[in-house]
TrEMBL record, chains A, B:
InterPro entries xrefs: Acyl-CoA_dh-like_C_dom, Acyl-CoA_Oxase/DH_mid-dom, Acyl-CoA_Oxase/DH_mid-dom_sf, AcylCo_DH-like_C, AcylCo_DH/oxidase_C, AcylCoA_DH/ox_N, AcylCoA_DH/ox_N_sf, AcylCoA_DH/oxidase_NM_dom_sf
Domain Acetyl-CoA dehydrogenase-like C-terminal: 473-585
Protein name: 3-methylmercaptopropionyl-CoA dehydrogenase
Enzyme class per UniProt: oxidoreductase
Domain Acyl-CoA dehydrogenase/oxidase C-terminal: 283-448
Cofactor(s) the record lists: FAD
Top-level taxon in the UniProt lineage: Bacteria
TM spans (from-to): none
Length: 594, 594
């Protein structure tokens, strides 16, 4: 079945949950005209539904092929990519001076959700290009920018990010790829990278690789890593393509999902070494990587949201069509659609509410990253940067955990049909599985949240956020709308749990780091559930009061209530897990090895 | 990597958690000599590790082929099956009068876990045969038993269970396959069944199908269903094989997992109708099915346990080998195995403790089913039957949920490698996905738990179990072993939540059925988490006091503690979800369809 972008849900989350409307009103978005938001998203949704969604299954079934050092993508993919880029979708948030439209990241975040929902393996390619643009724009020389940036912004060429080696995954500092100074200002790179997404493909006539490597005299670890731009084809002075560079795909992985996205082993140096151009300074490659990590991680979080929404749409349609059993109390012949059964309703509401919560968190992250670069007031920018930094690991890990959980439920709603590949529910489940691993595993995100983001400024970013969330909860409490059920009480409890767990961790992050680390994963879940619950409640309040949400704003109240009573309610137990279980975790060796 | 059966863990769970030792001492197992348990399991573990485990990957990669109306299994599979049957493994708990060894179901349950862990797609075939044996033994005519039972018990022939049709899945009563009386006491069956596990294969020279069909004059719904035995090849009076019967595989499914297990569409009637023999009485087929449902559902629960244990063993080995980063506080060059990181320890402990809890629940179910047929005292038998009935949906649903969760973590521990099919972690994740769907979806199990098992006798079975669990918790509380941490408090809270949620549901199951049904899934989770937590604590106490568990019984204390502080601790929020969220679920239509 096809995909329909949930424009009303997206607009509510973007404008109210994530606070885009308020930020625009406050002047943080300069001359951005937020009236265009809906039109842009409608167009994105149309392209996604018409062009990308039908290729999702094709890509899964055909996969990609590697032959003669070239990767071929699935039928229809190169054409779709070129149409997508030609329509300007790669350039939505790109810098205007290099041909981008300069729209907010928040708009591009909603678009990223839409591409991911329609075809996550397709949408992954531009995510990498976006990171490449960010690295080049922030750290590249003027000359490199002039040669590469416009074509990357337009999407005429794509980018890759090459960090991983067999011995260097989460531990990037262990990489061994070698770069030697050629004497003319360029470098010769030799080595092997693995797990390189879209490392080669036939959708564009050039690919711009961003490769981490180590100079001969570099210090050990992360302080001795440099970032190089390595084009697949060298670029002549007039902008035309020159010689083939010495970087080739030497293998592709057979993966659980994302079959249409080539995951390449890249070999450099079989013909003397790939010609590379330094980005930033020698041995400062890790800083360049950190620059773009926020956006890349947010992008993967949005993949989680997108896949989840697609799985929900498919499960909902199935539950409305598939007839089995009767509704309670119904007599006589005939069968009812399975959506009448409370257990099926529960699964669908869980899918919908979790997806909505993750969406709101991701969009809020994008708005914070926008304000951090767009606002005039340096204090506003600094606060927003801190907010964006705090939310990024949650946006990435919580949303991708949810992508996995929602696609699991999507299979379950289909019953036996869900296990049959033809149905398509299983593809979403398979595709989602990588999102909690790549771009920093969700364990790494949790550690980042506890040791860097929570710990920054003694927790100030967290306390500021808790205050905002508390005022939303107060509005729920005073709304006197019985449709909210126990939402206010559940969210109030959750805020208390989040505050106590945050304090407990803050007290230990320096003095008893292993205790803090042991609780990192449940803490991130606690944070995401509480934050998501409050944001959904805020959106429900906004929908009730401004009538923007169409004919039935109460549906957002139901979604918020379900999330509070089923997901955010877990905050109390998660708090206890954070504070009570470190001894068991850190004393686990005998239990594990026995 | 290979599979090593965790004999110490299994024996502790079987003898102490599940209460086999006490039941034998109480005389409920007649002359069963429990000294042989360990030896039988050691042998099973050896066969599984040597023969079945190496075929697991082969089966996944080759899958099965359908050509010329015949299914061919993966290379090595027919030989392995025949060796397995020849070694007597199909006959472990079969009736002695037909050549079985008459060992307890509890022993066979442990063996089922072992087959499933080593090769779940292989182990699925005998599970179906076991159901067929049970149906035939309980309801078949003496003549049919004489012809078929010995060969089914030995495993020389396998059995299938054929319920599902395109329009009749969870709603079996909607089936349409027709049976006509042939006039000679036999029947002619025409129709199409789907999703038939091992509906055809080349591992044995005959297959005995058990097919649900409807007579022309049958009442509508489940009261008009009859059960027929339909052999693939008719059997002559001397026991030799006769003509090919009119039942053929006409299609096989392309599935997410379990690739080596053929899932067939079976067509009957292309050549005049399949010759079938009635089992039990006309129109009483559903009763025959219910007879064997307990064992079949337990079998699937054990698949969940087995896959989980296999995934755990693989993840543990990887975490001990794979080096990334340094342990906190460690200086100097070099990398540490990732098992030093608290977040990785957490994942592994979660895998281990969840698997152990599910194992204990499954084994306890088997012991109850054993006592229900073996004890002398009718009161003891009746109580055990009620216990077995109560535990069965939990054993099935909780264990298979856990199979999915543990295999998810198994992939996560592997990082990027987990997404690569070659690693093998993804196969466990794919294979596990069907277990929460087939043999009654986990939603159906939850509904069974609430509407039938909890509601039976005003909840008497639940209160009796809670009393037993409470006495275990009391022992933890009075043990004064600091290694238990907050285990006692967490389990005491969980018992309170389970009791309150049970009462809340009991009050509504008749008067407000949709409210009770809305809470069924979280209630089953609450039940499984509380029960599993108490059982692990009981096993830890037993390990400490009897020294059976080898050199370090404290490791079981750690496992029990981790489970209490991370999983059973969720009882409080699950209770609230059961009691508070029915309004949101049952008022969901506008939210879902908006």
């Amino acid at each position: 079945m096809t995909y329909r972008a949930p424009i009303s849900d997206i607009l509510l989350a973007l404008n109210h949950g994530a606070g885009l409307q308020a930020a625009v009103k406050a002047g943080h978005y300069g001359d951005f005209d937020s009236d265009i938001t809906a039109a842009v998203l409608e167009e994105a949704g149309k392209f996604a539904g018409d062009v990308l969604a039908p290729l999702n299954r094709v890509g899964d079934e055909h996969g990609i092929k590697l032959a003669d050092n070239k990767v071929t993508t699935a039928p229809g993919w190169p054409d779709a990519y070129q149409r997508w880029a030609a329509a300007g979708w790669n350039a939505v948030s790109g810098p205007e001076v290099f041909g981008g439209q300069g729209l907010p990241l928040a708009i591009n975040a909603a678009c990223t959700e839409i591409w991911s929902a329609s075809n996550v393996a397709f949408g992954l390619c531009p995510l990498l290009t976006l990171s490449a643009i960010e690295a080049l724009d922030a750290h590249g020389s003027e000359e490199l920018k002039q040669i590469y940036l416009q074509k990357l912004v337009s999407g005429e060429w794509t980018g890759t990010m090459q960090l991983t080696e067999p011995q260097a995954g989460s531990d990037v500092g262990a990489l061994r790829t070698r770069a030697e100074r050629a004497g003319d200002g360029t470098y010769r790179i030799k080595g092997t990278k693995i797990f390189i997404t879209y490392g080669d493909h036939d959708m564009t006539d050039n690919i711009v690789h961003f490769v981490l490597a180590r100079l001969p005299d570099a210090p050990a670890g992360t302080k001795g890593i440099s970032l190089f731009l390595i084009p697949k084809f060298l670029v002549n002075a007039d902008g035309s393509l020159g010689a083939r560079n010495d970087i080739y795909p030497s293998g592709v992985e057979h993966k659980l999902g994302m079959h249409a996205s080539p995951t390449c082993t890249m070999t450099m140096g079989d013909h003397g070494g790939a010609i590379g151009y330094l980005i930033g300074e020698e041995n400062k490659g890790m800083q360049c990587m950190f620059t773009m990590m926020n956006q890349a991680r947010l992008g993967v979080g949005l993949e989680g949201v997108g896949i989840a929404d697609r799985a929900y749409q498919q499960a909902l349609a199935f539950a409305q069509e598939r007839k089995q059993g009767r509704a309670v109390g119904k007599k006589g012949d005939g069968l009812d659609p399975i959506i009448v059964h409370p257990d099926v309703k529960r699964m669908l509401l869980q899918m919908r509410s979790m997806t909505a919560a993750a969406r709101s968190i991701c969009y809020a992250t994008a708005v914070a990253l926008d304000i951090a670069t767009r606002a005039n007031d340096p204090k506003v920018r600094a606060d927003a940067a801190a907010r964006g930094a705090l939310l990024t690991p949650i946006a990435k890990a919580f949303s991708t955990d949810i992508g996995n959980e929602v696609t699991y439920l999507g299979v379950q709603v289909h019953g036996g049909m869900g296990f049959i590949e033809e149905t398509g529910a299983a593809q979403h489940y398979r595709d989602a599985r990588i999102t909690s691993i790549y771009e920093g595993t969700n364990g790494i995100q949790s550690i980042d949240l506890v040791t860097r983001k929570l710990a920054a400024n003694g927790g100030a970013s967290v306390w500021a956020l808790l205050d905002e969330l508390s005022s939303i909860v107060k509005q729920v409490e005073t709304s006197n709308d019985p449709a909210f059920g126990t939402t206010g009480a559940k969210l109030r409890d959750a805020l208390g749990s989040l505050e106590r767990a945050s304090k407990w961790l803050l007290e230990r992050v320096a003095s008893a780091p292993n205790d803090a680390l042991a609780g990192a994963t449940p803490y991130l879940r606690l944070f995401g559930s509480t934050l998501g619950g409050c944001m959904l409640a805020g959106e429900a309040l906004a929908a009730r009061s401004n009538g923007e949400a169409g004919s039935d704003p109460q549906r957002y109240v139901t979604v918020a209530r379900f999330f509070a009573e089923n997901i955010a309610v877990q905050a109390g137990s998660l708090e206890k897990t954070v504070t009570d279980s470190a001894d068991a975790v850190n004393g686990a060796d005998a239990a594990l090895l026995g």
